[in-house]
Design a protein that fits this description.
By secondary structure, the protein is an alpha+beta fold. It contains five helices and seven strands. A hairpin with a 4-residue loop joins β1 and β2. The longest helix is centred in the middle third of the chain and has 14 residues. The protein is globular and about 45 Å long. 20% of the residues are buried. About 10% of the residues have low confidence.
Length: 155
């Protein structure tokens, strides 16, 4: 029996953030990278442009999620071949064996926090999260998310 697939990634630091999620056969993503924050592109927009973009995003998302107002966002139909390749790569990256929690107790308070929830068609599942600590294959995992969700999330 095929299980409902779950792909959920949420990460944030002071400024940049990312969220990728499989919702009803669509891949939805919202993200802003540090280089976009630093480049000033967001700051160069007029107040009217910012307000207009913010209103558009709020119409499409949960009204409580204001941090997504100035983000890159995308919604694409799930491609079966891409999702099968993604699960193959998850196996190869040994994500199923990640620890439940990675944390640096000595890290600064505005560091990078992240959360991953996965369940493939066979019902194999994984929950892992962290703060300023990562599994060895974390960057490659994010690369695979970028391919699947057609995003450009930087770490």
């Amino acid at each position: 029996m095929i299980k409902k697939e779950v792909i959920y990634f949420d990460a944030a630091a002071y400024g940049p953030f990312a969220k990728c999620e499989l919702i009803n056969e669509y891949l939805e993503s919202y993200y802003r990278n540090m280089d976009e924050e630093v480049s000033g592109e967001i700051k160069k927009k007029s107040l009217d442009q910012k307000i207009s973009e913010w209103k558009d995003v709020i119409k499409q998302t949960d009204p409580g999620i204001s941090k997504y107002a100035y983000s890159n966002s995308k919604k694409i139909k799930l491609d079966d071949s891409k999702i099968l390749y993604f699960w193959k790569r998850i196996d190869e990256l040994n994500v199923w064996n990640w620890n439940k929690r990675y944390e640096d107790d000595m890290a600064m308070t505005d560091g990078y926090t992240w959360e991953v929830k996965l369940r493939n068609r066979d019902g194999k599942s994984k929950y892992s999260s962290g703060y300023e600590q990562f599994p060895k294959t974390f960057k490659k995992f994010v690369d695979e998310l970028n391919k699947l969700f057609e995003t450009k999330i930087n770490l």
